[in-house]
From TrEMBL:
Pfam families, A to Z: Zn_ribbon_GRF
Coiled-coil spans in chain: 73-107
Keyword flag Repeat: no
Domain of life according to the entry: Eukaryota
Keyword field: Coiled coil, Metal-binding, Zinc, Zinc-finger
Highest classification ranks of the organism: Eukaryota, Viridiplantae, Streptophyta, Embryophyta, Tracheophyta
Source organism per UniProt: Spinacia oleracea
TM segment ranges: none
Start and end residues of each GRF-type domain: 12-57
Gene: LOC130463117
Entry protein name: GRF-type domain-containing protein
Keyword Metal-binding belongs to the record: yes
InterPro entries, per the entry: Znf_GRF
Length: 118
């Protein structure tokens, strides 16, 4: 939203400039709105309660497609977290195997003398 847009000058009931957020509810996915700067969805604080839709309402097919994409994104994020965890475990296992291999090489190359350091 540029400072010259009509939405930029909208003030809430508190008399201060509003803030723009994006709705990710099932009914209004991706839809922009203005609200009181004192509202906070994470804490449940409503501020003065002022609210204004910036975007027009979405049509049903847009709602369905956007919701499907949001679900797919969440699934992909979950899969990525699982894969990153598996990758870290594989890297840890590799480090252990490399260390074990180095110990075995020292034993094989140094005979009994190489066993003193293990």
């Amino acid at each position: 939203m540029s400072s010259g847009s009509p939405c930029a000058s909208k003030k809430c009931y508190c008399g201060i400039p509003s803030k723009m957020l994006t709705s990710w509810t099932t009914d209004n996915p991706g839809r922009k709105f203005l609200t009181c700067k004192f509202s906070d969805v994470h804490t449940g604080r409503k501020g003065c309660g002022w609210f204004y839709w910036v975007d027009p309402d979405v049509v049903e097919w847009q709602r369905v497609v956007t919701n499907e994409l949001v679900v797919e994104k969440r699934l992909l994020k979950t899969e990525l977290r699982i894969m990153m965890t598996e990758l870290q475990k594989l890297e840890d296992d590799k480090a252990l195997l490399v260390a074990a291999n180095e110990r075995l090489e020292r034993i094989c190359n140094g005979g009994v003398a190489g066993m003193k350091g293990t």
